[in-house]
Fold each of these.
Amino acid sequence: MEDKLVAKIKRRIQSGNDIDTPCYVYDRQKILKNIAILKKNFTDIARLYFAVKANTNLTILKLIKDQGIGAEVVSPGEIFICKKAGFKGNEILYNNVARKSEEIYYALKSGVEFFNFESINQAILLEQVAKEMGKCIKVFVRINPGIFPETHPHLSTGSTKSKFGIKMEELSEVLRIIKKFRYAKLVGIHSHIGSQILSPEPFIKASRKVVEAIEFFKKNRIKIDFVNLGGGFGVPYRPEEKDLDFSPIVDCYRQMKQRYNLEVLLEPGRFFVANGGYILTRLIDKKMRNHLPVYMIDAGMTENPRPALYDAYHHIEPLFKYKGRRLKVRVTGPLCENADEFGVFNLPELKIGDYLLIHNSGAYTRTMASTYNGRPLPQEYLIDGGIKLIRKKQSLKELIANE
Ligand SMILES: Cc1ncc(COP(=O)(O)O)c(C=O)c1O
């Protein structure tokens, strides 16, 4: 059966109502379905927070918030956006590998109560700023569990080489300093081992390290009430990839929760929105290179930098069905960069002007987009009953705003 979103876009184009490309198109029903999957798996086990770095569109944030989900942020900018979307300060987790004191002030003024820290210096800074502001905050120590999940090295944040988290050997130093704190109360252990992980094992391995940390503090008479087990749930990007099997993860988290009487928090980003978004694009040129046809489309690394950054595969299909055999073609964007390539795909013979959809473009695309080559950020649509414009295209004037 044809995807409802695809059918709606086709109908709009066929009715003579062109859509300016490239643009982002989100599917409300798919995002709701993803939320339902997470809720079904983790109800009674974990509180869900959306890692908003995946998608900061206000309409998308409101949609997620209205489903009772909190927000995980990494900057005052994301706090500002989340507050605009209606999240309250106490529904926001503020994580980051390193912050400046003014960023902590901003968060405290915004009513944020949960913070992580990933170094001794950062823990001390949290205590100092909280003291100056006279506010008590709840802090999580992010551990580096020393795990390398099978994902792109740039997406692996739990290996010993990565800059993230505190080494297990440093926990005794954490213990020494937090005992002196009066404003920043250590309540939890945080772990996030990376992104786009499609097998349950790395999550289970990481939770063993979290348990080690809980036991360490318990032995030293510090009760851990919370664990934040991060995000990282992968989604199939390639047609042959399988869905992540949540059940071993769910069992493991349930056992941990019951054994230590914990509040479990999770902060996935990609899983909420990746397959709920597409980039609609058009073929703008064709040429031959090394005996391979090159299809140049009007979307590139400015709208989706993931292939250039992580060698990410994003499935590409024409919007309309075409008869005839498919051929191997290289798909590239139009930017002045060799890295502006989406890869080699089996596509039908297309004409200049034909529409294509880049799949799985709901996460880490618009939030990572840039105006490189003087390209304004494109408009975004939400598809539900109809096609609704939810953010206008940036104007040329906005390219020089603030200058
Ligand atoms: C600390 C932290 N939590 C959660 C996430 C969300 O990860 P994902 O989108 O893979 O679920 C990230 C992503 O980088 C992160 O750094």
Note: The two ends are 50 Å apart (CA to CA).
Amino acid sequence: MSVINYAKGIEVKDPYDVIVVGAGSAGSTAAIAAARMGAKTLLIERLPFLGGISTAVLDTFYGYYTPGKQATKIVGGIADDVVKELNVYNACFERPNTFGAGTGITYHPEYLKVVWEALVAKAGCHILLNAWVQDVVKEDGRITGLIVSTKIGQVYYTAKQFIDTTGDADIVYLAGFDYELAGELEPAQTLTTTFKMVNVDAAKRKAVSKEAFHQLMEQAAESGKYDLPRKEGSDHITPVDGMMATIMTRLKSYQVTDGKTINATDPEFLSRAEMKGRLQALEYIRFLKDYVPGYEKAALSTFGIQIGIRETRRVYGEYRLTEEDVLLAKQFDDQIGLCGAPMEDHHDGEDTKWKYLPEGKTVGIPYRTLIPRNTRNILVAGRCFSASHVAHSSVRSMAQCMAMGEAAGVASALCAEKNISPVALDTRLLKQYLLQQGAIIKAP
Ligand SMILES: Cc1cc2nc3c(=O)[nH]c(=O)nc-3n(C[C@H](O)[C@H](O)[C@H](O)COP(=O)(O)OP(=O)(O)OC[C@H]3O[C@@H](n4cnc5c(N)ncnc54)[C@H](O)[C@@H]3O)c2cc1C
């Protein structure tokens, strides 16, 4: 626990009902939900734009639909508003798929930045960008405020309720609550530097099947002239003609030295990974241009703004979702959302391991997985929610992060209004609000 050094003249801001830290898919949605409920809400983000991985790294939402023969829509509410607003700019389209996480919604991430900003601001939430939560102040197990680093120095923000949507569970970590560090108990999912190519002849590329594409990658790697650790990376079309996006590179996400695990929350480790990721991407670009029809005249457009991090810290919550829950498509009384995506483990090897739920089935996401245990006024949402490594590999797609964010936002607003802890909230009331807002919480 920290003590604020008032002697240093730290600026103290007026209190909020709810502060959301981290504006990824989970945090932006949580902020919209809390503000729409009438809570005085602040959204704090360290980057100069909203969206987190959705705008800094990727361009396809998965999880809106179940995979398999028939795609059933299983996420609604604010997630629908996001797609509706993207459509206003003609900035997204569906990519039907029966395999993997199912049908995806590919969007233009620059438009998504504007869409997130518009939805959050319209809901009445105050946005603070380029602001990094650096420490937490606690009293009697309750978080009272956050110390935020800005260009004018440290600023102190207080609230009744907090939502940790930092992806890395930074607030939970800084407050000294319980979490599992990815890589500590089981191997953690790898890191990926995404990149986009322009001037691609998409029609020519389309003529190459997925299997043939992977064979080319294999051949190039076997030639010894290219360093390609992953042999089944993917590329896909985007809303921009001739531009392809990739999820191809693969870097180890943790290391264990003298029994101590470090991962992408370690600044030294992360710095090396960011630089190695870009070099590895250049190898894949060389391969694409040399081997893959359609890429002959292609050029690098952009790297992802930051390396893609799948998992770092996952909290220990009032409930921890397990592999068995997912495989059995378990339903819960307090579920606030659904997930039909398979467990998709991007492990250290050359391929990706997939384990599917029974055809057309979904697992419920319990509200309790958003409540870090032994806490009084904090919820989490998104990729740091309470799940085992394997269960997390299913329930981490952006649509599920949005569903969790919406529930956390509504719950925090209700807790702030009623002056109660998240664990004391009547989940029937929470579910009632979510249903009114178009969320889908009951398995089809
Ligand atoms: C390479 C890769 C490929 C993937 N592919 C897909 C895909 O195709 N489709 C899909 O649906 N899902 C995919 N996923 C999973 C999905 O993208 C993530 O699980 C999801 O985006 C996580 O959202 P989030 O809101 O929990 O976290 P994030 O998007 O990581 O957001 C966290 C936010 O918190 C901010 N933040 C962190 N710490 C602080 C702090 N201390 N102070 C202030 N701000 C802070 C960050 O800047 C960030 O904006 C992929 C993930 C990766 C890494």
Note: Residues 21-27, 44-47, 52-54, 57-58, 60-63, 132-133, 165-168, 170, 192, 247, 308-310, 382-383, 396-398, 401 surround flavin-adenine dinucleotide (CB under 6 Å).
